[in-house]
Amino acid sequence: MASLITCPHCGVRPKEEFSIRGDAVPVRPAPNAGAEAWYAYVYVRDNPKGRIEEHWHHTAGCRRWLVVERDNVTHTVFSVRDAADVAKARSGEVA
Amino acid sequence: MTLSFAHRHVLEDHIVGFETKPNPHHLAVARRPTILSVLSHAGFEAGVKAALQALEGVSVRICGPAEWLAVSHSVGPEALLRLVRAIEGVSAFDHSDGRVLMQITGPNVRKILSKCLAVDIDRDRFPIGASASMQIAHVAGNLARTGEDAFEIIVPRSYAGTLFEEVKEMGREFALTAAFSPE
């Protein structure tokens, strides 16, 4: 169930402890990337059904940003990772 | 012009009337504990944690990765701040006046706490010495297990009144008493 999130730092926690920011898929463009890229990053969103990745903030716990991979139909949670680790993995740096 | 400030505990107005003897289930509010917020710089986490735990008379509460609360009833804020800031890779600040510490004890303490927690505090899952930040009666606070049936709650000062009343209400079933802890 999506109402229980296994925080990598705190363990199993209720969803009430978190605030959800939104889609974790868009990657922030470079500062000089141009209006089109920034427009797409800020405003353009898909509305997918099924497996999604979101930024969750563990507000009442460790106050870390997490990337929660879950299914918005069945509420199954597939993975919860620290957003810093995800960013490091994306940029190719060893976490 | 000189101003002199008198220390007045935030729960002073909540704990009024004649003092009763503490029941088996009791909520004790510490009058002036020392509470420091400690953060570790990247890469120094393990060293800072070990150094904090080595300090005498200091109880370390885990808030998250690289973040702790250092609690003491014997060392004053200035003295402890000096000790903690001597550790390499540390940022520490005095939160003694910004946080309120209360200890709840009693054989059915888990039954009382489980009314306002959504975290597993079973004897085995939350052993003595364990601590974590969590939502306590909708307030983001820190819970620590300090004894067999003893827990300590640390909450921001501005939420202490709400939490105190909530915990008292939840403890009514077991005749929970509340008072400032004796110095």
UniProtKB/TrEMBL annotation, chain A:
GO BP: tetrahydrofolate metabolic process
Top-level taxon: Bacteria
One family name in Pfam for this protein: SoxD
GO molecular function: sarcosine oxidase activity
Protein name (record): Sarcosine oxidase subunit delta
Species of the source: Rhizobium straminoryzae
From TrEMBL, chain B:
Chain ranges passing through the membrane: none
Superkingdom as given in the UniProt entry: Bacteria
Organism: Rhizobium straminoryzae
Protein name, UniProt field: Sarcosine oxidase subunit gamma
Residue ranges annotated for the GCVT N-terminal domain, each copy included: 68-178
InterPro entries: GCVT_N, TrmE/GcvT-like
